[in-house]
């Protein structure tokens, strides 16, 4: 990991991006912008979101990973940091397509993978890069923003602190996705502003399914008592969905299963809110199966 | 519409503005910023709002039209697009004071009128201007943002795709406004963050009314059974309002009818929330009439 | 106040910041950005917050004062202005570390103190600096934004209008803080997005207290019937808190009293929402006292 690349000076970054759970009602985000602007007045800063639910590291990781591929090469700061001020490390990660800065709690690693994988990592302990007096509760302002500004100006990653073995970085559990005989089981990864339910499943699990599918809750296939071949869901409900390309492929108010703009399977309601209709949240397991592929009488096909 | 102006190169725009219903909790807005920043790194981007209620094209149209006159000349992107991915067209419109980019669903036309009227229109079909792979559900990122960046850099409008006859652009119904003997009837156009109730009526309908007015619900004057001369409202309530210049012209908690900062009639409560007090929403019809002008006994004048 | 400094040309500012109660759903903020961008196209604008509760001047003053020290030298516009359009003055204040622009209702003075104190003040009456037609209800767009842009470009403060005696500026009441025998009584100053309860008390009032403290409601010590030496709170509840450095110094769900990132005493819940737990709001008086310092039996020490 202490590759020579990490020590070489880089060209200045085009942008710094910010992803936090700070909300928009206080001055926290502006303080981070201010710290960056003082150090790097000409740098563009793009706000990814500041409405990650407080402390929800998984949600922050998902939004960050899905957005960074569309940003210019730069330094991406993320702060969802319930352990701020404790012994958890602050880190900066190098990738082929940009740098990531934030707490070592799993928040950054999906984004690092989306940018080509971790090529170097350091712990942010260089006191000359931090605020003169680092508060115990606001490392966005006192640690991550000034480090990001310095990296964006082209300072070498290894000047930020000592190398960290990437294998020691804290990782979140992988979301569950698995193929089952008539379709797949997958965890709900995110619910967006419109209520679209994004599953952790990639497009290739939906593509082979027929024009109509069924959706039902599922149990963890490895949980005690789980029956992965059970024809009906565990939650007592099962809904039919159109297998389409976009919301308008289903009638208004109807459910559509499609591949979303990130390449993942999603469930949406045309003109409605799928997460409310299905009463699901991130982490809920759902089974999506072809209508009639297994266990249906022919007359039931849609 | 295929005026020579549309084909001539233009000077680079000073800004791109963004108006959407994307919300602020996901990375959608940042992805649009990122696409623009990759193509036009020096361009200023101004967010108008991303909190248009999901799918509310009328609300998006009103916010956009009321804001663009105050922005520098530029390219204004708006995306409130329940028909994304269906056969609805994506368009760019030329006006004397800027360009508008978004879906052809009526969202852009009030803003076009505010900028001097449509002088040219094209359908956004040039594949070299779009994302390499256009998703079915995120045309803000894959169609409208890259088109806006290219137009902002000075590319000719007609390079974005074939000309569209402006007469074929989808239009929203005009909000209802009509003069009645003792005042006017008008539709609620917007309710803002403070609860101010903006009517579609222009200032000149309020100006001649006396220092106190009465407000009541109204029926569509052309609806069956509507009686446009009925002295009282149809909803069973009638409220008195001060005809003033600003909130403070009425006592705290009292209703004031005034001309708002866009030149339209508005109803506000000093220190309160007029839309909650009146229980009205966009689309509600209200009658505003002079106190005592018609049908009042002299002793009732305020 | 009419110091020579106020008349001298200044170098251009690096930023304009905006703090308002305009919300994010309308185009009000964008209109201010647009006015600034038209006058000063290269100027960076930083949004502090636009979610000050409508008309809450105290909250606006607190956010502004706590954020401006972290912004680059510049012109800070704040608009929480229930008296817009009435006889209240619009003012610009000079300080050693930046300029402040907004209504004369107390909103700016804590920030002025944080920037080194008021060195000059003017009333914003120069019509050539304002919008051609100033609305009665949107001085952010028509008065404060254009004045800020001109000041940011380096125009002298005194060109904005006639000098104002700083002693005549409207002031908010000081929040209550007082030392009591076993600790201190202080007003809740703000509640942030995470539910952290910030007290008006400075760090030096918490520092001498032991490793565990007790928190209870208090009455204004000068109120009739108030007993400042009462061993228990007036509200019927008393809670124990860890006296720590950061959230993680208390177990998950437990209360911690610490010095926050602004140097004030704050009460937080590790992984929770302290303001909800304690049922307090800005303005609530709390007593924080050392556990066992006064009036406790030895066996009760935590």
Question: Strands of the biggest beta sheet of chain A: in what spatial order?
Answer: 8-9-13-12-11-10-14
* Fraction in helix of chain A: 10-25%
What pattern of helices and strands is seen along the backbone of chain A? HEHEHEEEHEHEEEHEEEEHE
The chain pair with the largest interface is: A-B, 36 and 29 residues
Structure explained in plain terms:
- Three copies of one chain form a homotrimer.
- With 302 residues, chain A is of the alpha+beta class.
- Helix content of chain A is 19%, strand content 27%.
- The first copy, chain A, has helices spanning 4-7, 28-39, 57-67, 109-114, 139-152, 203-206, 274-278, and strands spanning 15-20, 44-49, 74-79, 90-95, 98-103, 120-123, 177-180, 183-191, 197-202, 212-217, 239-243, 255-259, 264-269, 285-290.
- Chain A has a seven-stranded mixed β-barrel with strand order 8-9-13-12-11-10-14. A six-stranded mixed β-sheet of chain A has the order 2-1-3-5-4-6, sandwiched between helices.
- In chain A, a hairpin with a 2-residue loop joins β4 and β5 (98-103).
- Mean pLDDT of chain A is 90; it is low at 1-5 and 293-302.
- Chain A binds chain C through residues 22-31, 33-35, 37-38, 41, 54-55, 82-86, 135-138, 141-142, and chain C through 14-15, 17, 19, 24, 44, 46-52, 63-64, 66-67, 70-72, 190, 192-194, 245-249, 258-261, 268, 270-271.
